[in-house]
Amino acid sequence: MRTIAIIGAGNMGGSIARGLYMSALGKQYQLVVCNRSQEKLTALKSALPTIKTCTDNQEAIEDADIIIFAVKPWLMEKVITNLKIKKEAVVASVAAGIATQTLASWTSEEQPIIRLMPNTAISLFESITLLATYHTTQEHVDEMLALFDELGVAILIEEEKMGAATALASCGIAYAMKYIQASMQAGIEMGIPAKQAQMMSAQCVKGAAALLLKEENHPSAEIDKVTTPGGLTIKGVNELDHRGFSSAIIKAILASNK
Ligand SMILES: NC(=O)c1ccc[n+]([C@@H]2O[C@H](COP(=O)([O-])OP(=O)(O)OC[C@H]3O[C@@H](n4cnc5c(N)ncnc54)[C@H](OP(=O)(O)O)[C@@H]3O)[C@@H](O)[C@H]2O)c1
Questions:
Q1: Centre of ligand 1 from the C-alpha of residue 75, in Å
Q2: Chain segment 22-31, per-residue pLDDT in tens
């Protein structure tokens, strides 16, 4: 059985552990989860009984074929350089903004490196996970794509696009939430109870996304279907444009790519 070690059991490391534990492919691996402090490990172990947990990073990676680092970006260098990593282990990192070449400079130029950028929907198997690689074989890439495809959708991209893609796909989840939050506020002002407003707004966004993902239609084609000439929806859509909605979204995503 191959082993995956996850270093850092916070929001992202914990979500990846939960997702892998539940997924068909992830079940075929021994998971070892390591964290600086014990509390999160105790909670994870009670939810995922067959994982191994520890607070010693070196112990965690000893038998690992894949090591996923999920600590804050500013801790990465110290955490990685403190370890003796076997040269054939795949070093994967979810740390935002840290390039594969930087990771290689902290391990070795020969180390297979995979940079991963999931979003928080990974815990519900609905992440879009971006991968960029350095010094990997096709087998390494296929294995990682297959593992993260089970936690949503995983795609390989060129590393120079990682900043832009992160703004779109990882930060983007916050912008989608902002739309839901704002539309809830409108619903509440019109007298709809908050819980119902949230359900309506979130399900509406889920439906819109499903139409685009399943039918592979362009958003304009789907908008065209609901904007009857002289109708109410076109009034709202035009109001969004008068108020700079598209421009605000574009500027937000460009700002996240700095
Ligand atoms: N959250 C997101 O939406 C998101 C999305 C994409 C990528 N990421 C990336 O994911 C990484 C983790 O972010 P997060 O939001 O999951 O942070 P987090 O919730 O703070 O989790 C980080 C975990 O790392 C542990 N840790 C710190 N130092 C350690 C060490 N020396 N050895 C082992 N464990 C250590 C912390 O333990 P303690 O409990 O002791 O503090 C904590 O549980 C970041 O690099 C971030 O860029 C996050």
A1: 9
A2: 999 999 999 9
User: How many angstroms does the Cα of residue 176 sit away from the middle of ligand 1?
Assistant: 23
Q: Which atom of ligand 1 is nearest to the CA of 120?
A: 3
pLDDT value for 209? 96
Give the Cβ contact number of residue 78 at 10 Å: 10
Using 50, 70 and 90 to split pLDDT, how confident is the model at 123?
confident
Instruction: Put residue 135 in one of left, alpha, beta given phi > 0 → left and psi -120 to 50 → alpha.
Output: left
Task: Provide, rounded to the nearest whole percent, the portion of the chain with pLDDT above 90.
Answer: 97
Q: What domains, with CATH codes, occur in the chain?
A: 2-159 (3.40.50.720), 172-256 (1.10.3730.10)
* Whether residue 14 has its Cβ less than 6 Å from ligand 1: no
The response to whether residue 89 sits with its C-beta less than 6 Å from ligand 1 reads: no
Query: 104 in ligand 1 pocket by Cβ < 6 Å?
Result: no
Is residue 17 within 8 A of residue 9, CB to CB? The reply is: yes
Residue 258 has pLDDT above 80, yes or no: no
- Which regions of 159-214 does DSSP assign to beta strands (E)? none
Supply angle C-alpha 17, 29, 68, rounded to 5: 45
Q: Which atom of ligand 1 is nearest to the CA of 14?
A: 16
Query: What's the CA gap between 239 and 242, in Å, rounded?
Result: 5
CB burial class (10 A; 0-12, 13-18, 19+) of residue 111?
buried
